[in-house]
Every structure is written in structure tokens, then in C-alpha cells.
Design a protein that fits this description.
Blueprint lengths: L10 E3 L2 E2 L4 H10 L6 E8 L2 E6 L2 E6 H6 E2 L1
Antiparallel strand pairs: 1-3, 2-6, 3-4, 4-5
Length: about 70
């Protein structure tokens, strides 16, 4: 299951990043998105997701959300 199917406010554990793009992998890693890290979807508006990872909140698009497996 990827992040687009997550329920708002529920904490999940990232099980992997599914993308073939190294630049995208690196960007998600800088946000703290890597296997074993807790993640929460705070809100969703159309194709935009506000996520909480570590001590930060970030706005990501649907493509990034689909790449994050939980």
C-alpha cells in the first residue's frame, strides 16, 4: 500500500521507496522518508498531501506520495 491510501492522522511506518529516479530517492531521503521511519498524512487536498515526518511537515504531490510504501 502506498501513502495515497493512508487515513488522515494515523501513523504508519515506511516500508520502502518505490521509484527508479535517483533524484527523487535523494529528495525523499532529505525529508526523512526512508524505511522504518514513522510518517503521518496530516491533510490531503486534491493531488497534494501534507505529511509529518520526524519533526517537520512537508507538502508533497501525488507522484511522491505514490512512491512511499507503508
Amino acid at each position: 500500500m502506498n501513502l495515497t491510501h493512508a487515513q488522515l492522522g494515523q501513523e504508519y511506518i515506511i516500508t520502502g521507496i518505490d521509484t527508479d529516479d535517483e533524484e527523487l530517492d535523494g529528495f525523499l531521503f532529505t525529508l526523512g522518508c526512508y524505511s522504518g521511519e514513522p510518517i503521518t498524512v496530516v491533510s490531503q487536498l486534491r493531488d497534494s498531501f501534507v505529511i509529518s515526518v520526524k519533526d517537520g511537515r512537508y507538502n508533497i504531490n501525488r507522484d511522491l506520495a505514490e512512491a512511499i510504501s507503508i
